[in-house]
Design brief:
Elements: E1 3-7, H1 11-23, E2 27-31, H2 34-43, E3 48-52, H3 60-68, E4 78-82, E5 99-103, H4 108-123
Parallel strand pairs: 1-2, 1-3, 3-4, 4-5
Helix pairs in contact: 2-3
Length: 126
């Protein structure tokens, strides 16, 4: 069982992702915006973060940039979820290790595959 943080400002999206992860046996926590997600990660680093890009307070790109600049979270696997193309300069962050991207609307199999790949690589089980 892995600890996974789901960060999305849309309650329905958080619920869908949380249900999917809990069905797979994971321990899930939720955050309704980027600032809360970042604070939760600072208190307890999860095994994986699934995070929307467009969120209030602090967007997913800003959270990811902070995580990649801190030794304790540099290699934390993060899956970014977005319905929009990333702006110039933002797409560079996708090239950092352990960073994944899934386009909304997502299909269950695509998200499951991204989660499994991220966890396998992170936990060294691939």
């Amino acid at each position: 069982m892995c600890k996974i943080l789901v960060a999305d400002d849309e309650p329905d999206m958080r619920s869908l992702l949380s249900d999917l992860l809990e069905e797979a046996g994971h321990d899930v926590t939720e955050a309704e915006n980027g600032q809360i997600a970042y604070q939760q990660i600072q208190r307890e680093v999860p095994d994986l973060v699934l995070m929307d890009v467009l969120m209030p307070m602090m967007n997913g790109i800003q959270v990811l940039q902070r995580l990649r600049n801190e030794p304790s979270t540099q290699s934390l696997p993060v899956i970014l979820l977005t319905a929009f193309s990333l702006a110039d300069g933002e797409s560079d962050i996708l090239e950092t290790p352990n960073t994944y991207h899934v386009t909304k609307p997502w299909r269950r199999g695509v998200v499951e595959s991204a989660i499994n790949s991220a966890l396998a690589k992170s936990l060294g089980t691939n």
